[in-house]
Amino acid sequence: MKIHIIGNSHVSIFSGKSTILNKYPSHVETYTPTPNITYCSYHIGPTIAYNFFEHHYHHVTDICERFVNKDTDYIMIVVGEVDCRWHLPKQASIQHIEIDTLVDECVTRFFRCYRDLSNKGYKCIGWGGHPSTNGGHNDDPNSPVYGDVNRRNNISKLFEYTIKQKCIENNMPFISILHECINDDNTTDMTYFIDYCHLNADKILPKINELVISYLNLQN
Hints:
alpha/beta; Rossmann fold; two-stranded parallel sheet
């Protein structure tokens, strides 16, 4: 069975490598971690969940038409980490809006992708995202981080919960390793990371594989 992973640089962990993949359409990475799972990863460039449907969903439909078998394959869109690390806390501060309201709006806007795919007969898997660095606020455009880690991790948890509920309501499987990466004191366990926001495939992918096998009732 193939799972087509589409999104920003965070799709790279599904290649089994702890490096950032080259971008689609020039590159598609295929990795088979178990006899019954093949990940096909498509790095479509910098993307956020909030405007994904408007600006990037055409990449998803192109990939589906070219590579996805509706009868056997699944689609998973990997976005949201950047929203939780930078855009959502920043906009909550600038606009003086409750973060619950912004997260709900962001997830609702993004989930239009899954609704459309489902209506077209494709099978989808929801993704819960992951936290970012323990480091504090950073305005560097190459590694932007807004606010402190406790605030950001609470936003990540709310984002995960909200998208999980939408998956449940729409009978879609959902996987998340978010809580694996957060310590009891709500800081981030940076042993799972290769930098301030990207996960280490060697450390986290086995856990993802276990979830995929469990949720899709596969034999390992």
